[in-house]
Each structure stands twice: as structure tokens, then as C-alpha cells.
């Protein structure tokens, strides 16, 4: 007999809604989620209602499972002639809950939701210290009054800087998301991304560098060096700017042809100036998912 339940993770979150059509329009029109499965409407027998603390007069139930991007699905229940409580629990009530949605662009997401008439319970707040330092969050209400949350931490959370033994799962991380639909790129398309990477690292205009970065780097891309890990466009752009300041007359160029193996590419590079004085050399390895660089491993040759 097994000594544990062998749980792999959260499959779905279930919520009750008063109007199924309203909920589906909310999830599809605003979040871009899609209905995958539907059950019902079907009646529930008296014993089921008693075991689940339901009112005996409540009618048939319809259940829809919603594909909610990367992560757990949302199972939406709607009961005909519902005799249950019509008042949402307060935040300090037992059983109160909310769903947190990760966004790579907090300001953009808030502006969009407000344009759709969504009510917010405050303004985005960034945690200044502690385990969740760097996390920005804000609560809002679904049209039927359910409490929900937007959250973002493109540069990670404070606790991660302590090199913890375990790291919280996040929908922003590409690793482990094998169920995502991936669009395979040709070798030529991957080589073009690598070439643009080289252009980016030589670009000294921050605004131009940002445009290229948004085209070829995933918002939560990780750059892993021997001595550090940088996550997100802001951190990586800052590193590039610092490197350019350190070597103002140098630029990156190929040291060998680019190698491509499925969604992985390898590029050998050198950093030198017009007089061919070599300031460094090494290799970049790219992991490309959904058309953009998800991870960049940097290997610098020792002097």
C-alpha cells in the first residue's frame, strides 16, 4: 500500500456562478479562455444533495470546464432554481477564496479590465520586502461579485534570492508546461532569432533594444550565467547596458556558424573592437518555445 497520495498538482478550481452565459462571456471575451467540456443539465438526487449540504429544492446542474491558459483549469457550476446562499462570503469567512491570474504586464492588464467595466478593490501594490518582495498584486471583482486577483513578479520573488530548496510553481515559467501548444519553427527561423539576439546585444539605444527584445525574448525569459540568473526583459536589458558601459568600443560577432537542434540553438561569439582586440569569447545556448527565447545559457571562456 502506498504511504502517500501521489498527488502531482492542482488539476482545476471549481466555482459556482449565478449565470452561466455571463461567466462564459467573462472568461472568453476578457481573458481569452475557452470552454472545453460540458456536462448537463442533469438533476441531482436527494442523497447527493444531503451529502453535499445542498438545499433539497435546488434544481439541475450544468458544469463547464474552462481552459485557463497555463495552469489549472476552472470548473464552472450553475444550478437551476438555486436555493443556495446568494451572498458571497466575506474575506474573513471560512470557505472564502479567490483565483489569482498571472500577467506579464500588470499596468496593461489593469487598464484593459477597467476599460471593460471591471471593478477593482484598490490599486496594484508591489511588496517591498520579505518572501514576496517584487510581487505586484491587485484584487478585482467578476461581474457576479466573485473576488479575483491579478499578480505579477517578472523578476521573481524575494525568497528565490536565498536559493531555496524548493521554488513555487508559476505559470510564467516555461519549464514543465509540456501541455502547451507549441508552434515549431524551422531552422532558418531559429537562426534569424539568434541573429537578432546578436543585434540586440550590440544595440546601444535602449528604446530600440526594447523593441527587439519584445520580438525575440519571452517576457519571463531566464538568462543563466555561471554567476547569476537574470529573469525578465528589465533585468536582462540592464545587464546588457552594464556590459556595453564596461566595453564601450567593443561589439559581439560570430566565432563560428550557428548550430540548431530542434528548438535548441548554439552560437559561439567573441567580443572585440575595431582593432580586433579580443575582450572575451564564449557560447550562448538558446531554448526556444512558442516562437521566442525562453532560456538563454551563457558560457564565458576563461581567460
UniProtKB/TrEMBL annotation:
One of its GO terms (biological process) is L-methylmalonyl-CoA metabolic process. The keyword Lipid metabolism does not apply. Keywords: Metal-binding. GO terms for molecular function: metal ion binding; methylmalonyl-CoA epimerase activity. Pfam families: Glyoxalase. Coiled coil: none annotated. InterPro entries: Glyas_Bleomycin-R_OHBP_Dase, Glyas_Fos-R_dOase_dom, MMCE/EMCE_epimerase, NTF2-like_dom_sf, VOC_core. Residues 9-153 form the VOC domain. This is Glyoxalase. It comes from Mucilaginibacter rubeus. The lineage of its organism: Bacteria, Pseudomonadati, Bacteroidota, Sphingobacteriia, Sphingobacteriales.
Amino acid at each position: 500500500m502506498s504511504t502517500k497520495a501521489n498527488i502531482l498538482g492542482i488539476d482545476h478550481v471549481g466555482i459556482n456562478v449565478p449565470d452561466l452565459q455571463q461567466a462564459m462571456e467573462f472568461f472568453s471575451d476578457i481573458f481569452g479562455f475557452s470552454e472545453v467540456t460540458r456536462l448537463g443539465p442533469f438533476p441531482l438526487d436527494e442523497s447527493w444533495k444531503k451529502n453535499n449540504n445542498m438545499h433539497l429544492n435546488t434544481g439541475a446542474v450544468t458544469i463547464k470546464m474552462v481552459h485557463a491558459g497555463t495552469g489549472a483549469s476552472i470548473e464552472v457550476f450553475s444550478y437551476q432554481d438555486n436555493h443556495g446562499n446568494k451572498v458571497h462570503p466575506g474575506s474573513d469567512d471560512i470557505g472564502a477564496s479567490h483565483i489569482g491570474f498571472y500577467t506579464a504586464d500588470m499596468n496593461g492588464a489593469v487598464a484593459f479590465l477597467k476599460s471593460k467595466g471591471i471593478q477593482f478593490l484598490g490599486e496594484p501594490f508591489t511588496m517591498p520586502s520579505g518572501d514576496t518582495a517584487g510581487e505586484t498584486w491587485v484584487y478585482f471583482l467578476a461581474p457576479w461579485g466573485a473576488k479575483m486577483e491579478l499578480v505579477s513578479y517578472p523578476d521573481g520573488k524575494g525568497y528565490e534570492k536565498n536559493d531555496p530548496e524548493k521554488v513555487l510553481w508559476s505559470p510564467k515559467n516555461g519549464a514543465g508546461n509540456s501541455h502547451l501548444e507549441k508552434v515549431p519553427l524551422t531552422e532558418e527561423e531559429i537562426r534569424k532569432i539568434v541573429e537578432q539576439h546578436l543585434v540586440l546585444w550590440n544595440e546601444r539605444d535602449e528604446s530600440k533594444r526594447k523593441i527587439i527584445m519584445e520580438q525575440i525574448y519571452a517576457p519571463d525569459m531566464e538568462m543563466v550565467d555561471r554567476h547569476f540568473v537574470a529573469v525578465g526583459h528589465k533585468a536582462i536589458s540592464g545587464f546588457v547596458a552594464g556590459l556595453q558601459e564596461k566595453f564601450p568600443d567593443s561589439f559581439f560577432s560570430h566565432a563560428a556558424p550557428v548550430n540548431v537542434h530542434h528548438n535548441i540553438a548554439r552560437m559561439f561569439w567573441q567580443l572585440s573592437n575595431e582593432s580586433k582586440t579580443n575582450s572575451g569569447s564564449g557560447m550562448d545556448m538558446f531554448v526556444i518555445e512558442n516562437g521566442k527565447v525562453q532560456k538563454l545559457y551563457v558560457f564565458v571562456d576563461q581567460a
